[in-house]
Amino acid sequence: MKNVTDSFVSFGHWPYAGSFGFNTDILATNPINLSVVIGVLIFFGKGVLSDLLDNRKQKILNSIRNSEELRGGAIDQLEKARARLRKVEMEADQFRVNGYSEIEREKLNLINSTYKTLEQLENYKNETIQFEQQRALNQVRQRVFQQALQGALGTLNSCLNNELHLRTINVNIGMFGAIKTKEITD
């Protein structure tokens, strides 16, 4: 260790003026060179380094502030979106409830209208059956009447002779004349 401290204090190892040479003593030259370089760097680079560090610190702080602002904005947007989601979910539930009740109401209306339509069809059916029965009865009566009339005419024609026929016509004309005179006098 004594050699290291001696190299700093004594100039015995320094070459003479006017000569040029390399000092091969690494332990003597490196600490001196390093301390000079570090001293120059600290003296001249202190301001630049502190400015660089301050700029970097400001950039980091600005990035953090921007990130916090963006985070706050994102949280606000998230809360707004959640509120909208809750509102839409409540509206959807309301629509669902209203939809179910509307479906039930429409179902009941459809069932009621179907029953009414069936009742009307049943009434129309009964009316049609009654009408057809009445028409069939009328047709049967008309046929029976026609057959009875034909039978009576056949019997009359077979029983009547010309003299009886003329007497019936004269009686009918007399009755018709009496009715006419009565109508004229009234």
- The level of helicity is over 70%
Mean pLDDT: 82
Q: Summarize the biggest pleated sheet.
A: none
Q: Note the run of SSEs as H and E.
A: HHH
What is the rounded Rg? 68 Å
Number of strand segments: 0
Q: Low-confidence parts, pLDDT < 50 over ≥5 residues? A: 4-12
Q: Strand-residue fraction?
A: under 5%
Instruction: Name the shape in a single word.
Output: rod-shaped
Kindly name the structural category. Answer: mainly alpha
Number of helices: 3
Distance between the termini: 179 Å
Question: Could you please describe the fold and organization of this structure?
Answer:
The protein is mainly alpha-helical and 186 residues long. The protein has a domain at 33-153. The chain is 89% helix and 0% strand. The protein contains three helices and no strands. It is rod-shaped and about 195 Å long. It starts with a helix and ends with a helix. The model is unreliable at 4-12 (pLDDT under 50). GO terms for molecular function: proton-transporting ATP synthase activity, rotational mechanism. One of its GO terms (cellular component) is proton-transporting ATP synthase complex. It is found in: Membrane; Plastid, Chloroplast thylakoid membrane.
